Amino acid sequence: MDENLKKIIPFAKKFKGHIFWNITFNVLYALFSTLSFVALFPLMEVLFKMNEKVTELPKYNGIWEIASYGKNYLQYYITKLSEENGTQYALLLTVALVISTFLFKNLFNYLASQHLTKVKNGVLRDLREKMYAKIVDLPISYYSEKRKGDVMARMLGDVNEVQNSFFMVLELIVKEPLTIVFAIVAMMKISLELTVFVFIFIPISGFIISKIGKSLKAKSRNAQKENGQLISIVEESLSGLKVVKSYNAESYFKKTFNASIDRLLRLNNSIGKKNNLASPMSEFMGIVTIAVLLWYGGNLVLVDKTLNGALFIVYLGLAYNILTPAKAISKASYAVKNGLAAAERVFEILEVENAIVNKENPFQKETFENKITIENINFRYGNENVLKNFSLEVPKGKTIALVGQSGSGKSTIANLLTRFYDVNEGSIKIDGVDVRDWDMHSLRNLMGLVTQDSILFNDTIKNNILLGKQNATDEEIIAALKVANAYEFVKDLPNGIETNIGDAGGKLSGGQKQRLSIARAVLKNPPIMILDEATSALDTESEKFVQVALENMMQNRTSIVIAHRLSTIQKADKIVVMQKGEIVEQGTHDELLAKNGTYSKLVMMQSFE
């Protein structure tokens, strides 16, 4: 059994009731599929007046004689009806019998499909639920190496492919094979000689079809990978549309996109060619067999007279009845190969090892009481250390500022404190407890993060701010907006806090977006604030508004301010100057200016900007 098939089983187990009924109704469908053709025999006999007269009720001699018992029982009633009411009534009975078998066959097919639909849709929901939970739980570092578009393609397209293709396995192992088995049993009862031809046809057909579908799984996997590339290009183009347009790079992105859809076209055409060949190939193989049967069986009826003509017509119907499931099996086996390729990509994400998880029985606390201690930490994204033997103490209620050139490791400190990444060596402790020992939920509850990029969602101002505290009242939201110096523009919006701000807050200016991010952090009301270059993307006027908001927010809080603009951190209790991952100077603004060192140079440079 394929590994990915085994992995789907736990998802399907939840729906074992539906699977049981699907199998039961498929068995009944297969049985009535054969009976619908067998029921044609008494109809033929009435039509051609070939029926033997059976005047006594037959005796039941066990399960192995059930076919002849059923036939004799039917003929007894046909004889009785013909003698009492005329042939028309006998004909009516046989027509009603044929209609009934076809009715039950289709009813059971419908019921089996209904139960299968519930399994497929249920598994689709559970897979998506589990996948989204995994995508959200995976650490930030995972997405620095992966294309978001590829993750989206797996979440949407590949999971769909699993749903559409995978559960054809139930058809492959129950419905179609049993239809063939029941038909062959009935055919052997009619003529053993003729059935030998069918046994020759099935393996030959199966061999040819498996040859055609051999490379299908690999091609499906490549097509799904290309689909991920395609979604990535679209997602990146939309995110960076201003850059694309301002650099007149539309033609480059169109070329990249068109190259991807051309590759996808070739792959899909190749997959489609093989898929489309399966059905006509199996049908043609079946018609060749029917032709041979017509010639050989015709001889048995007309020349040797060893086979009843009506039985031969029923036999041909049964032989043709094998073609439909054989065709369905070949199609389903192709679809399952597509499903296996898609499942492989889905489980690739579901099985990613998350390096940043809670340890067993993690430390939990709702308050911050003492200090943050960073002790001799080393951290590297690749091979080169971004932070080297870095140590720092942040007492409760103090504001510590980290300054330095880009790439000096300032933002890395924020990523390590919030445990987006883990240190390679050394430790970061809050109230004496290593952040790796804290419950992550509890740890992040203590912190408010305001980043350089104001990350807002396509929703109302209210719902964006509520992320900080989901049960907050409108009054609390407005109070937070006032602290963040944002209420002065929010109150003038057409719907106030209920105004939708567009994709990534596109309807607002940079300063307005940043003040909403600050309001979100204010509403959360955490004891520790981390401001990662919160004003560096703003113009001077917006910066003044945001600076006032930040000062309001930082009152009576422990704050770590990562700053590029030095004008924003002159009131800090301690300024730490960083260079290439190490501390080169630390002290207050005045102390550092007096040293006339790196900080002094940075201030001088910025005063001329």
TrEMBL record:
The chain crosses the membrane at residues 20-44, 89-108, 194-212, 284-303, 309-329. Residues 372-605 form the ABC transporter domain. One of its GO terms (cellular component) is plasma membrane. The keyword Nucleotide-binding applies. Coiled coil: none annotated. GO terms for molecular function: ABC-type oligopeptide transporter activity; ATP binding; ATP hydrolysis activity. The keyword Lipoprotein does not apply. Residues 73-338 form the ABC transmembrane type-1 domain. InterPro entries: AAA+_ATPase, ABC1_TM_dom, ABC1_TM_sf, ABC_transporter-like_ATP-bd, ABC_transporter-like_CS, P-loop_NTPase, Type_1_exporter. Keywords: ATP-binding, Membrane, Nucleotide-binding, Transmembrane, Transmembrane helix. It is a multi-pass membrane protein. Its main location: membrane. SUPFAM superfamilies: ABC transporter transmembrane region, P-loop containing nucleoside triphosphate hydrolases. It is found in: Cell membrane. This is ABC transporter ATP-binding protein.
